[in-house]
Amino acid sequence: MSDLSVELTAPNGVKYTQPTGLWINNEWVKSKSGEKITSINPTDEKEIVSVYAAGPEDVDLAVAAARKAFKDPAWRDMATTGRGELMYRFATLIEQHKETLATIETWDNGKPYSVALNEDLAEVVSTLKYYAGFADKVHGQVIDTTPAKLAYTIREPLGVCGQIIPWNYPLLMAAWKLGPALCTGNTIVLKAAEQTPLSILYLANLIKEVGFPPGVINILNGEGRKAGAALASHLGVDKIAFTGSTTTGREIMKMAAINLKNITLETGGKSPLLIFDDCDLDQAVKWAHIGIMYNQGQVCSATSRILVQEGVYEKFVSAFKEYVSTTSKVGDPFADDTFQGPQVTKAQYERVLSYIESGKHEGATLVSGGEAHKDVGGKGFFIAPTIFSDVKDTMKIFREEVFGPFVVVSSFKTEEEAISRANDTTYGLGSAVFTQNITKAHRVARNIEAGMVWINSSNDSDMRIPFGGVKMSGIGRELGEAGLEAYTNKKAVHVNLGTVL
Ligand code: ADP
Ligand code: MG
């Protein structure tokens, strides 16, 4: 497989074999057109390697392989417990390769290695194990009607599932989607984001080793507008699960309409974090920091709009500034003490910088950051963690998703005002509330228009708990038992027992 893989040495000295092909039917192949995409290291802006990019013809082949696998007794009729064991072995094998996978993730994406290893990879493994456990616990119901009718439901897989994943958590978003789809017996064509094509290819190599039948999991790289669009509009695909921007989500929904595909969309957000006078301020500061600065601020559910009650506003702003300056160390993602690496691409870096300009221009108060961070060898897409205060609701930086280490802070007077301003957005993904008053905490949780509310924390998501949004933040849920709904049909079986009639 000489021209379908290359030997690489990562910046941390890890040597490994990087696949560069398309993974179709348990084999590496080139793209029909020969087209490639080049992966860039966001830390030094150098090219890492080029990999094959799928076009419509390759998508056709992958979908055909997935369709064949869906009908193949080797997969379709596999005992559910066996399916779970296969998934568990997959998780275990990933665990054995976690250092290499985390290395690739950091190299290609820019996230700190400690985060890639101890958080992303740990969650990949636990998510697959969690869903492995569900494989033999998904079943239908018997429904009582009359003595003359037996009725029951069967939970069936949907069929061929297209999964389009983003670049902020390449492996983890793959695990969130593979887990529930596999344990319910679907087959998959997964497309990684063109910004971060590498780690998923290394993962693909493990699929055959685990023993998944050919065609059950197919993995493609390729551009969204080509490979992604071909998948979303493919007549042979039964479902599209997408994580990414709201704009792209709308496009995908339109394309999926061609054959009324089942869809799950997890899109953008501008999630509010409400801090009341009666909160534990140290906790609020700590979680406000995690809520927006973690993963370079590239988190769809990041709590990027902080609303603080006027009694603690000044105190919060100065404590938050201090905490960010001591905790958010920007640097080489392979260095142990780095909290924040580079933004994933030049485009994202420029996007964040343009919002910084907008905040300055619109007259918000710059508390810290507000510029590129140039101390990491003078290269790379680094941004100084940026806080704007005194931000008005009409400002662009209050309304639009920035997707970077960039947060806006504003003050409020009453609970009613806080809720109405928190909800004054087209998004509804995450939200957080800080108060020591339990009645208020739960009342606010009910009144916030969001798929998720964190009380006295932010973004400590968990694979056992549903994740997803309302309004323009998405459709459907991932994770938890709710995640299974997105990958099964309920078939109703009516049995006539009315022989006396
Ligand atoms: P971003 O704008 O942050 O890069 P996107 O939502 O565009 O995020 O990308 C998320 C995923 O969606 C990626 O895998 C990307 O290739 C894919 N994608 C982008 N545009 C399209 C499209 N028009 N059709 C299908 N997939 C797309
Ligand atoms: Mg890259």
Model description:
Its EC number is 1.2.1.3. It is an enzyme of class 1 (oxidoreductase). Keywords: NAD, Oxidoreductase. There is one protein chain. By secondary structure, this protein is an alpha/beta fold. It has 2 domains: 55-267 and 477-489, Aldehyde Dehydrogenase, Chain A, domain 1; 272-460, Aldehyde Dehydrogenase, Chain A, domain 2, CATH 3.40.309.10. The protein has 16 helices and 22 strands. A 7-stranded mixed beta sheet has the order 16-17-18-15-14-19-20, with helices on both faces. A 6-stranded mixed beta sheet has the order 11-10-9-12-13-21, sandwiched between helices. Strand 10, helix 7 (198-210) and strand 11 form a beta-alpha-beta unit. Helix 3 packs antiparallel against helix 5, helix 3 (80-96) packs across helix 7 and helix 10 packs across helix 11 (313-327). The N and C termini lie far apart (68 Å). The mean pLDDT is 97. The structure holds adenosine-5'-diphosphate (ADP) and magnesium ion.
Write the layout of secondary structure elements.
Blueprint: E1 5-9, E2 15-19, E3 22-24, E4 27-29, E5 36-40, E6 47-52, H1 56-71, H2 73-76, H3 80-96, H4 98-109, H5 113-134, E7 142-144, E8 149-157, E9 160-164, H6 170-183, E10 187-191, H7 198-210, E11 217-220, H8 224-232, E12 239-243, H9 246-256, E13 262-266, E14 272-275, H10 281-293, E15 305-309, H11 313-327, H12 346-361, E16 365-368, E17 386-389, H13 396-399, E18 406-412, H14 415-422, E19 432-434, H15 438-447, E20 454-455, E21 474-475, H16 482-485, E22 488-496
Parallel strand pairs: 9-10, 9-12, 10-11, 12-13, 14-15, 14-19, 15-18, 17-18, 19-20
Antiparallel strand pairs: 1-2, 3-4, 5-6, 7-8, 8-22, 13-21, 16-17
Helix pairs in contact: 1-8, 3-5, 3-7, 4-5, 4-7, 5-6, 10-11
